[in-house]
Amino acid sequence: IGSESHGLDKPQVERYSRQLLVPAFGVAGQGTLCCASILVVGAGGLGSPVLLYLAAAGVGTLGIADDDVVEQSNLHRQVIHTEAAAEAGNPKTTSAKEACQRINSSIKVVEHRTRFTAANALDLVRPYDVIVDASDNVATRYVVNDACVVAGKPLVSGAALGMEGQLAVYHDRPGAPCYRCMFPVPPVGARRCADAGVLGVVPGIIGSLQALEAIKVATGIGEPLSARMLIFDALTTRLQTVKLRGRSATCAACGDQPTITAETLPSFDYAHFVSADTDPSPLPVL
Amino acid sequence: IGSESHGLDKPQVERYSRQLLVPAFGVAGQGTLCCASILVVGAGGLGSPVLLYLAAAGVGTLGIADDDVVEQSNLHRQVIHTEAAAEAGNPKTTSAKEACQRINSSIKVVEHRTRFTAANALDLVRPYDVIVDASDNVATRYVVNDACVVAGKPLVSGAALGMEGQLAVYHDRPGAPCYRCMFPVPPVGARRCADAGVLGVVPGIIGSLQALEAIKVATGIGEPLSARMLIFDALTTRLQTVKLRGRSATCAACGDQPTITAETLPSFDYAHFVSADTDPSPLPVL
Amino acid sequence: MVEINLEFSGGLELLFGDVKQHKVQVPAKDGAIQVLISDLLVWIRGNLLKERPEMFLKGDSVRPGILVLINDCDWELCGRLASPVEDGDTVVFISTLHGG
Amino acid sequence: MVEINLEFSGGLELLFGDVKQHKVQVPAKDGAIQVLISDLLVWIRGNLLKERPEMFLKGDSVRPGILVLINDCDWELCGRLASPVEDGDTVVFISTLHGG
Ligand SMILES: [Zn+2]
Ligand SMILES: [Zn+2]
């Protein structure tokens, strides 16, 4: 296979042999991935398969940002965690890191046991090549996006609720939109899994697809879901890919005259931003 | 939530609370799932997410059929296993069962540490409500299908290779085709992951979708991929759903005058059947 | 009169009797020859959306967080409220999800 | 002459220069007004498939294990070799996968 020039050692060639055989990926893809660093924001329903598959695939440095502890009600979908971790109330980052290293001790896994905030966002994203948004709330989605734009990082964004899921890659190339281009005004009354529920395997499917997109973006292989969105309906197993707008010149983050910058971001009030609308009523939960 | 009438106890209500909130699933869906039994054939790349998500979702009895041991070259995609299991050369059924029970000790997990053969196929499938084909070779795919037809079981069939995947539900209702209706004559020179390779997350995505379909079939919720096939191209993240033929009246398994029956199946020579074509050349691996 | 396939998802279907797909016939405004998305929104409000219109509409457009797709394309690519809709078009209204 | 979108996948693309999508113009047989799938297979063999035709064809049909889809429909639903193909149709040849 001629791996030496790509810096793969013998155990790596053995471990990744099935991937090295894939023409589109091969030794070059594996070599790039082994040097890549990916930050996963959220070690929950989406983050579980993202982390398991990125660790198994051999991403050189895997960051995990989460400030929650494992609970019983996580276990139906957060398959990276265990009953033992829930009973002990272990931090999700610790539980997830242990699982990743059980699969692949040759990669580096970094715990960021903290909430993703305006104040720490830029410091968190800067060391990484690709950011995966596997979070579960609107405020975090905006701060992660804005930090990616300011720091110049591609963002793989997934979401799941009920029997539905959505997936897109933002800000990965010139002309591609960022999350804020798509949603300049935050929604009101957004529903969360804790309120509206989610069938456990739905974030499993979306998270696995996020891992794929993160690998493609990190290695430059194939066509990522850039300026496209995948919309998934689990009840009918319908998967639509739709075409999204390009970058918006008026976007507060990635536009021609951004108001969100390395200077302003750390003091931007995301909690106020996402709750500024006066209409409080969430969509009904039937 | 009024769970008592569905037989969910307090820990179950806590564990599955996010799923119970999903209107289309709810307490009735969870109650049915907790009484259901699903057999997963193959604890490899596809079987890993199938087993993790079915265990987490609370399938009452989960069967695992596999006769392999865990190896290093499995770990890039078979995320249910660990380095420790590969080093010890543990059976995949044992490694997978332990992982399932770490997530959910309240379900029953049954190891079938055996190859799926003509001789044991009917005994293996009969105790289960739904069968998931997560195997990795042509002969097993035919014997699993035939056993499902003879025993009257629905089959959730997935496959992955390289950067591609395929998924379908067979024989789950009158008029739906079985695998043999689709492929009455076996292919020659079928490529396997060991020869042609596979990007690890591709079976992850297909396997997660198989878990979803198995849950839908077991609970009667939504529209499974019956007489439909999902075709997945990971390079472009393209997911197509195509319409398949109906049951074939001339099918050797499910047709009007089947030659494969409870009497003939156990002595059917599947190895010979899948290699009967004289053309030996497999598709090239570039 | 144009016949349009409407789809609501991401939770919006709950405002429409929990039905995701609707085939509807929408008339042009008096004197107009085309039906625009803006006309469609008015028609939906008057004919399909019986309660809590504020969950779907804001001013003369859709509520923030709702993505509008015309034949699998973001409506930003074809003129937003001024996009014409034609016989057989599919218009999807989807609420973005934030769970994980 | 009809213009057809051809797609090869599941490994079949390796027989076609590792290119999955081809836009081709296929003439009708002498005296015929329609192009049938059987004509398309002959045309592919003569014009697109330069080597190892036995990996794609068997007799006058496709090799076992290859699924043929005409506009996202199994060709069994529309007449197999006798299905007509029209301008703008998409015909997919996909080799079934068995790996896991
Ligand atoms: Zn932007
Ligand atoms: Zn059949």
TrEMBL record, chains C, D:
GO cellular component, one term: nucleus
A Pfam family hit: Urm1
Domain of life of the organism encoding this protein: Eukaryota
Localization in the cell: Cytoplasm
Numbered residues of crosslink Glycyl lysine isopeptide (Gly-Lys) (interchain with K-? in acceptor proteins): 100
An individual GO BP term: protein urmylation
Biological role stated in the UniProt entry: Acts as a sulfur carrier required for 2-thiolation of mcm(5)S(2)U at tRNA wobble positions of cytosolic tRNA(Lys), tRNA(Glu) and tRNA(Gln). Serves as sulfur donor in tRNA 2-thiolation reaction by being thiocarboxylated (-COSH) at its C-terminus by MOCS3. The sulfur is then transferred to tRNA to form 2-thiolation of mcm(5)S(2)U. Also acts as a ubiquitin-like protein (UBL) that is covalently conjugated via an isopeptide bond to lysine residues of target proteins.
Family the entry assigns: Belongs to the URM1 family.
HAMAP family in UniProt: Urm1
Protein's UniProt name: Ubiquitin-related modifier 1 homolog
Organism whose genome encodes this protein: Klebsormidium nitens
Taxon lineage: Eukaryota, Viridiplantae, Streptophyta, Klebsormidiophyceae, Klebsormidiales
